[in-house]
Predict the 3D structure of the following.
Amino acid sequence: MSQAEYTRAEASQLTKSQISAFAESIANQLNYQPCDDILAAIAKIGGKVKIEDTLLSDPERSGSLFVDGNNDFTIIVPAHTSPSRDRFTIAHELGHFFVHYLWKCSKDGTAPFKMMALRKDSERVEWEANWFAAAFLMPSDVFRERHQALGGDIEKLASAFCVSQAAAEIRARSLGL
């Protein structure tokens, strides 16, 4: 994959709540529930996930997305991270695919094009992908219910959603819990 043939992801300017609702809608359409096999969800829509040792060779590709078409994209996940961290990375890159590629194509009437999202993209692009990932993996209503049922225990919440404790803590804060 030569990076020269890909357009960089651009911010959608959607609000956090719009992106969150979009992510939860996508999860529902894919019949994706918390802790489901995210690789199966990716495969269902034509994507592939590659694990690469990017730490020393090409850190910029550590957590990246390359889109070749509507049903043809590759997510690069670093080999040196944990499975719970990888799930968030995969959902983050899925956010780039839906928000910065498919939504842009439908909004602008743009024909399919090649797009990439790399770690050094704009802050706004990365925030939008993070908002998507959090809502996709930890839907707000379900997260609130489990937060209450588990007494706000972040370690148990992380386990219930198969994410890192940091991701569960940030989600709880963002939902005002």
The first strand starts at residue 7 and ends at 8. The beta strands are 7-8, 47-52, 64-69, 72-78, 115-117. Residues 139-177 form one domain.
